């Protein structure tokens, strides 16, 4: 039996086309939602050692974008680096932590306190702050044995013990161990490697170099004990010879990969939910 061609006049074709477009328009959001739900981008824990020159500032973002800032660098211009990490310039930190009171670590926190809301500030020497925090900010000290968790990421304070005193402020630095899905990172402030070797008891993946990579006779024993894969040195133009050739040579001999903010800019680590990580 032969077929008879179907003839649709122009007016009817236009009507059908309009209906198809309207149906597509209304169904598109549901289709996008479906595919986003089934092929969503993997969430990461992110560590960003910010390039702030000769100083320290480390921004940590949990998989659900909770934010921890460890130190604020030597100048107020850290606030120029933060907006790209916050939607619509809405700066909200979940935790601020000052490792110690030297200006190359704490100065930028004065600017952050002006710009950003934060419910918790861990600091052992508040006398160095220019801006008195508002009443919504809870201030607490941090000593060995203290810990807190955000979004499945655990933070353990390894140093200093409560009541400890030292003539060298560097050795009063709050040392933090962070753990997530088996990945371990230590943020050392400026504490000497001899202290770190005593308190870091397990293998780690990532170590923020003590004191901007300055000469450190105990670094070799620390690297051999902690076995980090990555050593991140936060350093800028300086007259101290940082990072020391001794530190770089020791890391190379131990097979530790070195990243430097003065050479590499921001040092970024992304850690997946299975504990595997990549450097950027």
TrEMBL record:
Q: Which Pfam family, an example, fits this chain?
A: Lactamase_B
UniProt keyword annotation of RNA-binding present: no
Coiled-coil zones: none
- Residues annotated as domain Metallo-beta-lactamase: 54-237
The transmembrane residues are 16-35
Record keywords: Membrane, Transmembrane, Transmembrane helix
Give the protein name, as stated in the record: Metallo-beta-lactamase domain-containing protein
Q: Which source organism?
A: candidate division WWE3 bacterium CG23_combo_of_CG06-09_8_20_14_all_40_14
């Amino acid at each position: 039996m032969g077929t008879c061609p179907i003839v649709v006049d122009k007016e009817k074709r236009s009507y059908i086309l309009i209906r198809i477009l309207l149906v597509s328009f209304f169904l598109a959001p549901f289709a996008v939602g479906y595919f986003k739900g089934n092929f969503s981008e993997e969430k990461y824990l992110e560590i960003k050692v910010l390039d702030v020159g000769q100083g320290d500032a480390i921004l940590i973002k949990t998989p659900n974008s909770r934010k921890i800032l460890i130190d604020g660098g030597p100048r107020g211009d850290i606030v120029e680096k933060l907006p790209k990490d916050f939607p619509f310039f809405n700066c909200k930190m979940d935790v601020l932590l000052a490792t110690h009171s030297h200006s190359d670590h704490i100065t930028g926190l004065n600017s952050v306190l002006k710009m950003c809301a934060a419910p918790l500030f861990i600091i052992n020497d508040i006398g160095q702050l220019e801006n008195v925090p508002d009443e919504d900010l809870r201030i607490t000290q941090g000593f060995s044995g203290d810990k807190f968790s955000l979004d499945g990421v655990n933070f353990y304070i390894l140093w200093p013990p409560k009541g400890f005193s030292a003539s060298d402020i560097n050795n009063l630095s709050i040392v933090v161990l962070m753990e997530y899905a088996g990945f371990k990172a230590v943020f050392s402030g400026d504490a000497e490697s001899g202290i770190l070797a005593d308190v870091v008891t397990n293998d780690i993946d990532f170590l923020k170099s003590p004191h901007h990579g300055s000469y450190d006779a105990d670094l070799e024993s620390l690297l051999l004990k902690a076995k980090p894969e990555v050593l991140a040195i936060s350093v800028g133009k300086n007259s101290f010879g940082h990072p020391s050739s001794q530190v770089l040579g020791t890391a190379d001999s131990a097979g530790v990969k070195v990243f430097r903010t003065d050479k590499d800019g921001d040092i970024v680590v992304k850690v997946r939910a299975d504990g595997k990580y990549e450097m950027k």
